[in-house]
Design goal:
By secondary structure, the chain is of the alpha/beta class. The protein has two domains: 56 residues, no CATH class; 103 residues, Phosphohistidine domain (Glucose Oxidase, domain 1, 3-Layer(bba) Sandwich), CATH 3.50.30.10. It is 32% helix and 26% strand. Strands 3-10-9-5-6-7-8-4 form an eight-stranded mixed beta sheet. A two-stranded antiparallel sheet has the order 1-2. 28% of the residues are buried.
Length: 174
Amino acid sequence: MRSIPYDKIKLWLEKGQADEDLINSIRRYNIIVPNDDGTLSVLHGKEANEFDKLIERKKDQEDYSRLSKVKGNCACPGKVTGRVKVINLPQEMSKMNQGDILVSIATTPSLVPAMKKAAAIVTNEGGLTCHAAIVSRELGLPGVIGTNIATKVFKDNDFVEVDAAKGVVKKLNN
């Protein structure tokens, strides 16, 4: 987002001079944060980068091990069970067996050989026109996309049920 807070503009107008370094810092990268009083603060430069890192650290520290189910969008309907294989890179495809459930952050054409072995495809990212959704429909495989956290909840060899029509993937006891 490229914006400059009203109070900065007002100050520059009063002084008759804009702070070019500040303008460029805001143009490069900024984060708008709501305050408790209903106003907004614009963080930029080092302050924005530190805030961004703090948010990322908090995301990384979240405990997904307690979760047994994720919800996403249906790319192609169908219901299957199988063992999870988390595959994000072509060099990880060797662990994929026929009938496994492919779980990935997002798929790319380089992962198609693994996708062809899958009983279902599940991704963190993507919409109805993403690569995983298109290949899922093309191959007639149940597909759940846009779960945000599937790769954090499921690990290799987890036994799961994919109910793509409902957009749900859940761990089963087995």
